[in-house]
């Protein structure tokens, strides 16, 4: 490896540092996945570039492991204020810093706001990345940048590229028949508004759980049928459908029916396997554990997330939204929506308890090497406080017409939290300037974010998949895994 390549690996790439698409397919499995059709269009120099890239990416790729890894992504829709949580600026002027005091954490030099005392107490068990940056100011484009790597800054009604969760589901399904009866990808009130499987197809969407797991009436439909007669009837109907669509299969060049078969098989397994119902049953947890997470929707969502990855789910996503966020039920703390400081205070205790309980629980159960937890939103909030009239009264918002403080969208700097995954914890990565306006040290973008997650899942970030035009396209064509977050 050249000195230039070594230097590149030693730091995060800036956001959207592009490279030719054909370089990205040089992963360890890239040549096999690409097939002969892809090579027909390559010149000799192109092949040589692929080989060189293969050697470079091999150094970044995880070694094979006998234990299957998993990821829990905790999503804060709307984008949380970094200044009022993980990256306070106590020396900034009052226009920026906000009203919250700063507290020390268990990690020397790392401070949070007073809203996160439980985080501060276990800061040696996670890492905070303070220098994330992307380029889209809207919720749709910002979410698509971070979750799929789409560099477009324009808001679109639906994603052009599949999100990392669907990609991981697709690639892992190709590793061989799934032995675990649970789905590989589950979403508990997941972030589905601005992302999805795109051209991969709905077969790679999550098994979705809706509702409040804290309610005594909460249940997950379509799992664990006890009526064996109904199970046999469903099996006969499934076989009949497969026989009837024989003609269509002859013309199924894209393999879409095979994907649907896999999807249907998974659904049948959920219906007929008794163990699947157990995995979703929170009543099997003792009261002390349920209390530890918090007897509320967010706490029980994260407890269910832990329960499912422990049972064998590979990818788990869950959104912290709803009434616990405040009047507009998300983290989008414009002054017209919320008093940003009242909103942060309103949700802080529940958030602080649920997230730290999940992290501690993973360590205590010996899951901290296998399971990676990522807590993030699509961007941060403006460092400079704005003021506007509230559009309605309610939790964390004054009556309509009342002037109140807010913070607006801010993609130039934000923080996210990483725990487990075998990473070295008790540290913070990067920095923003004195007012929190720009990431200035160890700047990391969406490509780095995605490549890091893929690395934990054992997936080369240069692995190609066929796009909507049938062309092999790398799942991440910009960025590198963040070295400090490598397990």
Proportion of strand residues:
5-15%
Radius of gyration: 23 Å
- CATH class membership of the largest domain: Alpha Beta
> Fraction of residues in helices?
25-40%
Going across the major beta sheet, what is the strand order?
Answer: 6-5-7-1-8-13-4-14
Secondary structure tally: strands: 18
Count the domains.
3
**Unreliable stretches:** 1-11, 13-59
**What coarse outline follows from CA principal-axis ratios?**
globular
Q: Roughly what is the average pLDDT, rounded to an integer?
A: 84
Task: Enumerate how many helices there are, as a single number.
Answer: 16
CATH architecture call of the largest domain: 3-Layer(aba) Sandwich
The helix/strand class is alpha/beta
Report how far apart the termini are.
Answer: 22 Å
**Sheet with most strands:** 8 strands, mixed
At the third CATH level, what is the topology name of the largest domain? Alkaline Phosphatase, subunit A
Tell me the layout of helices and strands.
Blueprint: H1 3-9, H2 21-24, H3 30-39, H4 44-60, E1 70-75, H5 94-97, E2 102-104, E3 111-113, H6 117-121, E4 126-132, H7 139-148, H8 164-173, E5 185-188, E6 207-209, H9 228-244, H10 246-250, H11 256-272, H12 274-279, H13 287-293, H14 297-311, E7 315-319, H15 340-364, E8 371-376, E9 380-381, E10 386-389, E11 403-406, E12 409-410, E13 414-420, E14 427-429, E15 431-432, E16 439-441, H16 446-456, E17 464-466, E18 472-474
Parallel strand pairs: 1-7, 1-8, 4-14, 5-6, 5-7
Antiparallel strand pairs: 2-3, 4-13, 8-13, 9-12, 10-11, 15-16, 17-18
Helix pairs in contact: 7-16, 9-11, 13-14, 14-15
């Amino acid at each position: 490896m050249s000195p230039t390549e070594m230097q590149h690996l030693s730091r995060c790439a800036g956001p959207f540092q592009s490279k030719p698409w054909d370089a990205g397919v040089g992963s360890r499995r890239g040549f096999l996945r690409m097939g002969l059709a892809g090579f027909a269009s390559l010149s000799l120099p192109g092949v040589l570039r692929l080989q060189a890239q293969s050697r470079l990416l091999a150094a970044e790729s995880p070694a094979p492991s006998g234990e299957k890894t998993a990821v829990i992504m905790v999503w804060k829709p709307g984008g949380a204020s970094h200044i009022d949580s993980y990256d306070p600026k106590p020396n900034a002027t009052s226009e920026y810093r906000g009203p919250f005091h700063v507290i020390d954490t268990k990690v020397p030099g790392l401070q949070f706001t007073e809203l996160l005392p439980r985080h501060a107490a276990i800061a040696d068990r996670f890492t905070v990345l303070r220098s994330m940056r992307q380029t889209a100011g809207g919720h749709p484009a910002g979410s698509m940048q971070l979750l799929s790597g789409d560099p477009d800054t324009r808001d679109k009604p639906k994603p052009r590229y599949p999100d990392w969760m669907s990609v991981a589901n697709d690639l892992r399904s190709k590793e061989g028949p799934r032995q675990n009866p649970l789905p590989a990808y589950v979403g508990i009130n997941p972030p589905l508004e601005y992302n999805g499987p795109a051209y991969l197809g709905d077969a790679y969407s999550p098994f979705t759980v809706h509702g409040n797991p804290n309610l005594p009436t909460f249940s997950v439909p379509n799992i664990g049928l006890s009526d064996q007669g109904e199970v046999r009837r469903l099996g006969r109907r499934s076989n009949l459908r497969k026989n009837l669509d024989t003609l269509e299969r002859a013309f199924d060049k894209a393999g879409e029916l095979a994907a649907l078969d896999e999807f249907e098989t998974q659904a049948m397994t959920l219906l007929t396997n008794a163990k699947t119902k157990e995995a979703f049953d929170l009543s099997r947890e003792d009261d002390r554990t349920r209390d530890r997470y918090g007897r509320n929707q967010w706490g029980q969502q994260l407890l269910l997330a832990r329960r499912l990855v422990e049972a064998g789910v590979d990818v788990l996503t869950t959104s912290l939204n709803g009434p616990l966020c405040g009047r507009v039920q998300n983290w989008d703390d414009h002054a017209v929506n919320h008093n940003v400081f009242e909103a942060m205070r309103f949700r802080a205790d529940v958030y602080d308890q649920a997230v730290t309980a999940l992290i501690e629980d993973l360590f205590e159960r010996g899951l901290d090497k296998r399971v990676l937890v990522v807590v993030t939103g699509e961007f941060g909030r403006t460092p400079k406080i704005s003021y506007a009239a509230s559009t309605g009264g309610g939790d964390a918002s004054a009556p309509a017409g009342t002037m109140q403080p807010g913070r607006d969208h801010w993609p130039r700097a934000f923080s996210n939290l990483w725990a487990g995954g075998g990473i070295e914890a008790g540290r913070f990565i990067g920095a923003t300037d004195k007012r929190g306006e720009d990431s200035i040290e160890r700047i990391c973008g969406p490509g780095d974010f995605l490549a890091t997650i893929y690395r934990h899942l054992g997936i080369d970030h240069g692995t190609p998949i066929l796009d909507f035009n049938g062309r092999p396209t790398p799942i991440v064509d910009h960025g590198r895994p963040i070295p400090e977050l490598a397990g």
